[in-house]
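A student in our group prepared the protein record below, which I am reviewing. I have pasted the whole thing underneath without changing anything:
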Amino acid sequence: MPLGTIAWLLAASFSLGALPLTRWAVRVFSRRDLRALGTGNVGVSAAFIHGGKSAGIAAVLAEIARGIVPVLAGRFYFPDAPAITIALLIPLVAGRYAIARGGGVTNAVWGLLVFSPPVAVSSGIWGLLVWGLAQRWWGEGDRARLFASRCGCLCTPIWVWVWRQSMPEFLAAAGLALLLAAINFSQGDDMALSKSEQLFSLDDSLDAAICGDKAAKLSQLKRAGFNVPAGFILPSKEEGRGKKEEGRGKRGEGRRNEENADRLLISNSVIQNLKSKIQNRIIVRSSAAGEDGALSSAAGQYQTLGPVFSEAELLDAINRCRQSYWTSEAVAYRRQRQLPDTQMAVLIQPYIDSELAGVMFSRNPLDGGSQVIIEALPGGAESVVGGQCTPVHLEIDFSQPESLEKKLTEVQSNSIIAQSILAELVKQAQAIEAFFHGIPQDIEWSWDGEKVWILQSRPITNLQPFWTRTIAAEVIPGAIRPLTWSINRPLTCGVWGEIFKVVLGDRAIGLNFNETATLLGSHAYFNATLLGEIFRMMGLPEQGLEFLLRGQKMGKPPLGKILPNLPGLWRLVQRERALNAEFKGDRSSIFLPALQSLEKEGTTQILTRIHGLIMEDESKGILMPNAQFPMPNSQCPIPNAQCPMPDYQYLTELLERAEQIQEWLKPITYYNILGPIGLAIRKAIFRVNDDWLANDSAPEIASVRALQQLAQKLRQAAVSQPDETVSVAHLAQTFAETPALQADFEKWLDIYGYLSEVGTDIAVPTWREQPEIYQKLLINMAQKAETNLVEKREIGLTFSQKWRLDKCQERALVKNEISEIYARLLAHLRWTFLEIEACGLAMQVFQESGDIFYLEFGEIQQWIRSGASVSFKDTISQRRDRLVADRDRPIPPVVYGNLLPNSQTRAIDSATSETNIIQGIPASIGRVEGFVKICRTASTDLGENAIAVVPYTDAGWAPLLLGATAIIAEVGGQLSHGAIIAREYKIPAVMNISEATTRLRDGQKVRVDGYLGTVELLE
């Protein structure tokens, strides 16, 4: 082997590596010297970063050729000694680093690719795998990238051995790998440095983790068309960005709170670039990660500096702004809020010469009320937020849009702000809140004499969490008594928690599902903040929160966010698919035996041992006892029942029965929540219309149909001709004189007597407890010549439609079975508590019927198990008064924070309404004009041809709604009980008319359009 040739090739390789090809390429295309830019590294990445795309491409091509030439030369001169071919790359890389000031990685990679493609590809794949693992360990930072690059170099000898099985080649590759790794450790990182010197614009889509929440939110607003001044962001420094001087020996590993290090990372080119973009005065503002966030504002913790004039002042302002991240006050704030230490991004904007500036809240920051709060002073906004001057304070109530202009006029008369500016500010506040999906905003603004500028927008952090009536208003509507809530809340929260845990897996560990629901103003609310966070974790779109707060459509989730949740969603799908089989098993093994045991134990006999029925006294709004339980032939539901003397042993037995029923309620509640969800998903997937589904087995439909059939029998017994007019008195007499009809009515009560106005509220009397109401309804039905009995409809469906319907019909039938068992268990639970109350009345623990429902279940347990003589008189009195007050007050659909806003009952005045049209949700088509009848309970006498206005609908409302010409409901949607009933009986219906029972009045003439979903006030 000629040593002279080897020496000549080694020297030639070193000389080739020393040629400054990349530096020449950058100088030709950009006229810049890489040695004076960035880290001073004259490499391919530096060429792209500092020289541009053309220079970068030219540098890549030059370095590829430089890496291939020594390999080809080695093969030509020493075809039988491949180790020499690899060895020739070592002087090439050495010359590249020592003289040309490059890293040599591109040369080595392409040289190895020509030498042995399997070796090069294997090394590349291994580097990518290491990069992926490093990103999971360290996150997506420069540290992971550099680690993967070094591992790719060092693993090359291993792959040479795997593919070549040659010790000389292995040793040559090991020498090359060690040299490349050593260079990589010693050189600066232009890619990391470019990120620290990169300027983002507010016109870009910004990542809050890099540019801070303040800049990210302003970017969203600016791109959405709001008046936001132009701005540029120096991003926060990710881990590994301190390499600018590391290769030159000027810095060690220290970073973050080293003030001088921050100064070194800002080059003159960055300052010059910023000053060229903003010619006039500049303001420098902080934009740290977590600042202006959803849970922390960091208000006043970091510095804002301006106006800034010169480049020197700009550099100093940026450094001072970044250093403010590490003041003792700022660090203490982050510790107290449990926020991690990251870094400070800096927002640079033109300085606005304000004639007027201030802050505004899109909602009252004290209680989330419907007032835009505006505070302003002449000059800049910093004088307002600084707290050293007393600003003008204005509150504009926007709860009645039709009178907003009048209120603006009244407010402006005592203000320094013109009415047109006030109107614009209110408009901007409401628009920004809507843009951020209904989250109340704290907004900094400025008026320069021509337009209103938005300088900052962040959530009002003290108005957390958000509570919504969406869904909750249908699950458990109306004012709720403490006993009902103490039982329903753990059941509901527990089941929802179980469902979410199935989807989220380990990510659900930090979530408190006990906070899923709460009671505000005696009404149920769901935690929109918690549910919104769960929706985001599940990959659902941002409109998820808007759906909860404003009832908007959810929208389609982005595929990229859904994919990571596929395992959890698949687990939920598996549960949903198994629901029918699991329910049928539990029905046979748990629920039917449970109901049979309750009947056998005589739970229904409790009604015979109660001295008075619980009836609703509408004039007082409280529960009052009824003197007697009127039944046909004066018979009680269970004849010859005996009431044992009340004692604590008997009370303990009743308490244990109540506890056992609640244990049975846990699994049926799970089915009662997952069943409707599964049905809704199936209907959406298979595009099944509501009209296709047979609802005959639904309790609210079957009960009314059975009562209509009984009314036909009564009418036939009372008249000789089908069209004959008959009086109510005659029908009542016929009923009283016909045992068979009484027996049929008793049978109807036995079958459907477990139903009530609100199936989920055990404080509401069941049909079985108030038979006189339904006996009267039966007679009224019989008086009409046509009973409006709906026959089973035959719908012509294609084969495809029948197949799709088959995927949903069985689930609909199972859903009805689930609802029946759930309602029956709740009825038995209610009757058990009524028996406990009857004993308590006899023992003078309670004063009147209905008292027990003002206690929580834990209080009842403690009373019975302690065996002590107690009195709940004061507690019950206070809670009853609170419930009465809460029933009469308007209940907002959304509550911000844990306090109901102070508001007064409002009614629509047709003289002041611009359109006299109220928009709701269309539920059943048809158009009707008529007169309003406010129905607060299902026992309200509806009268003839009335439009029923109800607070909510449940299965128990079916008999009342059947007699209405149209239905207006405060809550509900197209799948609510009222909507189903209305469609079944072709009654026009509009749902979701907020506060309808207080906004409308008895006898008011309206027009209901069930197709458009509108209610028009005609007087």
Observations:
- The radius of gyration is 38 Å.
